[in-house]
Each structure stands twice: as C-alpha cells, then as structure tokens.
Amino acid sequence: MLSEIAFYGAVETGLIYGLVAFGIYLSFRVLDFPDLTVDGSFPLGAAVAAVLIMEGWNPWLATGSAVLAGMAAGAVTAILNVKLNILNLLASILTMIALYSINLRVMGRPNIALLGEETVLTPWYSLDIAYHQVPVLLFAIVIVVALILLWRFMKSETGLAMRATGANPRMARAQGIATGAMIILGVAVSNGLVGLAGALFAQSQGAADVTMGVGVIVIGLASLIGGEAVITPSTVVRALIACVVGAIIYRLAIAFALNADFLGLQAQDLNLITAVLVTLAIVLPGVRTSLVNKLTSKKA
Amino acid sequence: MISATDLRLTFGKGTPLENPALRGMSLTVNQGEFVTVIGSNGAGKSTFLNALAGETLVDSGTIVVDNVNVTKLPTHKRAGRVARVFQDPLAGTCEGLSIEENLSLAIKRGQRRGLSTAVKRQYMDKFRESLSSLNLGLENRLGDKMGLLSGGQRQAVSLLMASLTPSAILLLDEHTAALDPKTAAFVLELTTKIINEQKLTALMVTHSMKQALEVGTRTVMLHQGQVVFDIAGKDREGLEVKDLLELFEKQRGLTVDDDSLLLG
C-alpha cells in the first residue's frame, strides 16, 4: 500500500498538475484550441523562477515572473495562429520547439538545483504541521485562489465572450467580439497558469530541468479527461473542480500502480501507465453509457 | 440608413474556378424600410449579405452605414451597427451556454466588454419580457442550456438577440429556410412583428418569391451579382409571383429556370 509520505507527495504533484489542467481546459475546451505549447511553457516557468530565485529575488516575485513568461509564450502561439494564419496545433508545436532553446538560454545550463534556496515554501515550514504536508497546504491554497479567479473570469463579460469565441466564432463575431484578441488572451492566460505550475514544481522538487516539460500536455489532458469522467462538467465551476480532482486522482493512480508490488511496475514504466490511464479515461465513459443503454433497452 | 455602391467581388481570382459573385451591386436602404431580397442560386444574395456584415470584404465599392464608411471594417467592428440572423438555426446561438448567457452576450453587441459579471440581475426583467412575447414558455427557462431548445425555438431566440439592442440594419439570411413549414411561418410572423414594433430597418434574403411579396415594404431581385429590379410602394401592392416572373423576364430577356424560386 501507499505510505503516508507517498500519498501526500502524490496529492502535492496532483495539485500542481491541477493548474496545468486549468490551462488545458482553457485552451482545449473553452477555446477549442489544441495547444501543445505547455510542454515548453512548463519548463519555461520553472527556468524563470529558478534563475530569479538564484539571483536572490523574492520567490513570489520570481513565481509571478514565471507566470508572465508563460503568458508571453502562449501569446506567441496564439499570434502565430491568429495573425499569421498558421494552423493552431502547428503554431503551438513551433513555439514548443523554440522554447527548448529559450529555456536553455534562460538557465544557461540544462538544470538548476534550488536546494537550500529560499522558495515560496520556506516560510511555511515553520508552521506546526508535518514536513510533507506543507506543500500540500500551500498548493491547495494557490489552486483554490486560481480556481475562484478563473471562475469569476469565466462569468465576466470578457470571459463569456471568450467562451462564445470557442463555441461559435461566427456568432461571436456577429456579436461584436474580437475573436482573434480573445484567442490571444485565452491562450496567454492558459500558458500563464502552466508557467505558474512549472515554477511551483521546480520549487517543490528543488530543481528546474530543461527536460521536465516532456509529456506535460499528456498529463494535463489525462487530468482533464479523467476529471470529466468523474465530475460531469455541466457548469464552469464543475469543470474547474473536475480538473483538480482529475489531476489528484491521476497522480494517486500512478502512485498506486508504481507501489503495487504484485504488478511489478517500476519508475521507468510511468509514461506507459500514463498512456494506459488516458486511454481508459477516454474509453470508459463511452462504455458506461452504452452499457446503461443496453440495460435500459432490455428492460423496455 | 445603409448604402452600398458599386460592390464588386470575385472569388478565386486568377484561377480556373474564378467566380464573380458581385458585379457592381448598388442598393440604398432607407431608415424604417423592410427590404426582401430574392434571386436564384448564385445570384449573389448571401455574398451581398456577408459583404454588408463584414464576413467577406469586397474587392471594390463602398458600404456606408449610418454615415460611417465600413467598407474595410471586419465583422466585429460593424456589429454595433449591423445585427444578423443566420440561415442555420444553430449558428446564431451558443448551445453550450444558457439562454440568459446567450442573451447577455447579445445585449452587449458592439460594446466594450469588461470584467463585471456578464449575466446581470438588472437584465432579467427585460429578458423575461422579451422571451414571454414568443409565447414559448422560455421566460421560465432562462438557466437552461441553449442546446436543449429546438431549431425553431433557437431561431426565435436568435431573432430576439438581434433586436435586443438597436442597430442601423437587421440582416436576415434565409432565416426560415432550414425550418419546417409550421415553424417557418411562426418565425416569419415573429420577424414582421418585431420589425414593425421596433420600427427596424431590415434586409431579408429569401428563396421564396411568395414570402418576398408577403412581408416587407420593398422587394429587390438580384441576378448575376446585380440588382435587376427594385419595387416598392404602389407598384408592389397586389403583385403576385407570376408578375414578378414577368418583370424579371422583361428586364433581362431571360426565363427563370430555378424551380425552387417558383415552388417556394
């Protein structure tokens, strides 16, 4: 079974990936914009935060800068799509590839260790709670704040305009909504959230690494789809809660799979497990519906 | 008032599929007029409407709406002056959003959108009042998703949305064509009611000559990207479909070979 520390560790990482899932919800679901930039903006956030912390910046300022860097990356993707008419998926791949070089430039080397540096977590360790519970508490607060802000935004005039842009762009234009500007704003905010996740991840893991973004998009999608399978996203707030729940369930499932000795799985099997979990999350809701349909039609 | 002068637009210029859709189209619609536009397939009806709305920009010519030259403006910058209802009943609304959210989007048409709550309490009386005029019971379903409504209901709501805030012109693009006959009659009746009550200036494209004569104050026929005739007032009273056909043949020395125009 899972040890207490492994459990809290899974929840901690799950909370961070919940922010990624928010970002992916915004791009994939709200804007209908398949955005792979996140594989680059996640390590970008980590790199910016790590470098600034090493420079002696306040860790929250460093984290805020990581958010801005992520937003800039997202804006580049969206501008490639909106202004230069490059297919959205391709535009995001171009930015993602470019970010690999940029991240190396930002850090000056492939990785930066943050051990012993002051991070956003440092002051919280003086609280009277167990060491491994500290990141869970802080990240839970961060994600609740992010959830409330995003929810309020989605309910605002601009947020509603953004939802209309993704759902029905022709109607949105006819209502006077500048759909191009909405896509740029939305993809920027989405990658800002991912940059925040990267910055927090680097600080909780004690290092930023140029390869840490590989597969973030799949983990985010797994969280989003898994969450939607558990909580039907019929309203914005339910969809956002589903992102967080999905991310935590995903990390717990991974932790259980790796800890269950009878399965004989090891750490290197992580990506395989991820792919299997995502497939299950996509297929299972459909199987459930068809099963229910079969059962009810037999009764009738 | 809206005036289009010598609009020209060719699709696929310089290719074997070159297709001149507008060939010097000119039309002026005065305040309070309700113009019905007819023409066979490929006459340029939809292109003309798209050009007025800003969805397609013309190659040459000018479009002036309420003394503002909008020729080069994209759709969203014209939206404050130009309201529109699409042919596809699903196109005018967002099915994933609730009725009140759709109406809240429409009430800010062409205006700045900020960060205040989109669905405001002070809108609700206005929403309920306009929805109850449809007699569909929608005033009690403000929170329902748009996708739960039928095509006819959605088209009726689209019409409300287009008339929720003032505009210089209301564009109706065969907005009853995709509905069953009974629903189409209901939506058409609703259209004339809203246009008369609010004294709107409107341009309605229709595929049916009968419909074109039944409603509105003026009828324009397009052919090959130009206006072939334009009748209003006394000349238009008592006119029947066969008179229109005669008029068309006299003007152009052509016969109408599009059956749908005759049967519609």
UniProtKB/TrEMBL annotation, chain A:
Keywords: Cell membrane, Membrane, Transmembrane, Transmembrane helix. Its main location: membrane. The chain crosses the membrane at residues 6-26, 60-80, 87-106, 129-153, 174-201, 207-227, 239-258, 270-291. The keyword tRNA processing does not apply. The keyword Transmembrane applies. It is found in: Cell inner membrane. It is a multi-pass membrane protein. CDD domains: TM_PBP1_branched-chain-AA_like. Belongs to the binding-protein-dependent transport system permease family. AraH/RbsC subfamily. This is ABC transporter permease. It comes from Marinobacter xiaoshiensis.
TrEMBL record, chain B:
GO terms for molecular function: ATP binding. It is a peripheral membrane protein. SMART domains: AAA (SM00382). InterPro entries: AAA+_ATPase, ABC_transporter-like_ATP-bd, ABC_transporter-like_CS, ABC_transporter_ATP-bind, P-loop_NTPase. It is found in: Cell membrane. Its main location: membrane. The keyword Cell membrane applies. Pfam families: ABC_tran. Keywords: ATP-binding, Cell membrane, Membrane, Nucleotide-binding, Transport. Residues 2-249 form the ABC transporter domain. The keyword Cell membrane applies. Belongs to the ABC transporter superfamily. This is ABC transporter ATP-binding protein. It comes from Marinobacter xiaoshiensis.
